[in-house]
Amino acid sequence: MWRNPLDRICCTVSRTRPGGIAARISKAGCRIVEVRLDLIPGGLENARGIVEKAVSTGARVVATLRSSEEGGAYTGDPGDKLKVLLGALEWGAWMIDVEYRFPLLGEAISSAPGRVIVSAHYSFTPQPELLYAAAGEMLAEGAGLAKIASMVEDPGENWRLIGLNARWPGRVVAIGMGPRGMASRLLAPLAGAPFTYAALDSPAAPGQPRVWEVLEAWRILGIAPS
């Protein structure tokens, strides 16, 4: 049994008013927090204040500015995006999330070695050899963590993602999207992922469970206290 299962959940904050972020994080007891600056109202205009408020709770903060091409809402200039994300590290963020297809990925990694989560998002779940190749390439290029999220159509596809977590324990977070991807989200930390993702408020991805749902499932499985 995990002493504190919240150590294994990255609580995603989105669509929350900036002024209430610190209170929401503290109330939930989150230890790791992903701040979705592309989905928080006025996120870019208040980026520094949002990140600093999240950091003030004592949680490890991941700053994300997801592009519209990969399921987010950011449509601006890549250079401006990189500036905001590197600024987040100066404001106290633990890591930043940058897409594998981001045109300035190399600059991001070289500017913040070991502090970049490189992420790839698929509208389907590729075959295992493609998934393993993608994760391996991200790590080889210097990702502090490699994140892969894919839409799961067949429940059996979850095992492809769970296998990625087992192949690189502590270095890869591979999870499924959509209602059929729940198994991979719940089992990822058991297979070797440092954490899984769950919504603190509104889901930021298709099929993303809320934090309390993950905790309840783990309680039923006997790996989290009541």
Task: Please describe what this structure looks like.
By secondary structure, this protein is an alpha/beta fold. It has one domain: TIM Barrel, CATH 3.20.20. It is globular and about 40 Å long.
Q: What's the short version?
A:
With 226 residues, the chain is of the alpha/beta class. It has helices at residues 21-28, 47-55, 78-90, 105-111, 128-140, 158-167, 182-191, 211-221; strands at 9-13, 32-36, 60-64, 95-99, 116-122, 145-151, 172-177, 196-199. 36% of the residues lie in helices and 19% in strands.
Q: Into how many domains do the coordinates divide? A: 1
**Gross geometry:** globular
Per DSSP, what share of the residues sits in E-state strands of 2 or more residues? 15-25%
Number of helices: 8
| CATH level 1 class label | Alpha Beta
Strand order of the largest sheet: 7-6-5-4-3-2-1-8
Distance between the termini: 11 Å
Which helices and strands, and how do they pair?
Elements lengths: L8 E5 L7 H8 L3 E5 L10 H9 L4 E5 L13 H13 L4 E5 L5 H7 L4 E7 L5 H13 L4 E7 L6 H10 L4 E6 L4 H10 L4 E4 L11 H11 L5
Parallel strand pairs: 1-2, 1-8, 2-3, 3-4, 4-5, 5-6, 6-7
Helix pairs in contact: 6-7
Main attributes of the structure:
226 residues, alpha/beta, TIM Barrel, 8 helices, 19% strand
